[in-house]
Amino acid sequence: MTSIERELGNLQARMEAVEHELQAVRSDIREIRDAVTSARGGWRLLVVTIGLATTLGAALEHALRVFSVIKS
C-alpha cells in the first residue's frame, strides 16, 4: 500500500466521522427547535393565565371595596 492510498484511507475515515458528527448536530438542532416551538405555546398560556389572574384579582378587590362601603 502506498503512502497516498494510506492517506486517502485516513482522510475517508475522518470524513465519515465528520459526517456522523454533522448528523448528530442536525439532530440536536431539531430538538432545540422543537423545544423552542413548544415553549412559545407555553409562554403564551402563561401570559394569558397571569393576565386573567390579575384581572380577576383587581375585580375582586374592587368588589370588596364597593361592598364594604355599602355595608358601612
Textual characterization of the structure:
There is one protein chain. This protein is mostly helical and 72 residues long. The radius of gyration is 31 Å and the shape is rod-shaped. It contains one helix and no strands. The longest helix has 69 residues, at 3-71. The protein has one helix spanning 3-71. 0% of the residues are buried.
Short overview:
The protein is built from one helix and no strands. With 72 residues, it is mainly alpha-helical.
Provide the fold topology.
Blueprint: H1 3-71
Order of secondary-structure elements: H
Biggest sheet: strands, sense, closure? none
> Poorly predicted ranges (pLDDT <50, ≥5 residues)?
none
Multimer state: single chain
What is the number of beta strands? 0
Overall body shape = rod-shaped
Structural class by secondary-structure content: mainly alpha
What is the strand content?
under 5%
The percent range for helix content is over 70%
Mean pLDDT: 88
User: Treating each run of at least 4 consecutive H or I residues as one helix, how many helices?
Assistant: 1
Question: Over the alpha carbons, how many angstroms does the gyration radius reach?
Answer: 31 Å
- Cα distance spanning the termini: 104 Å
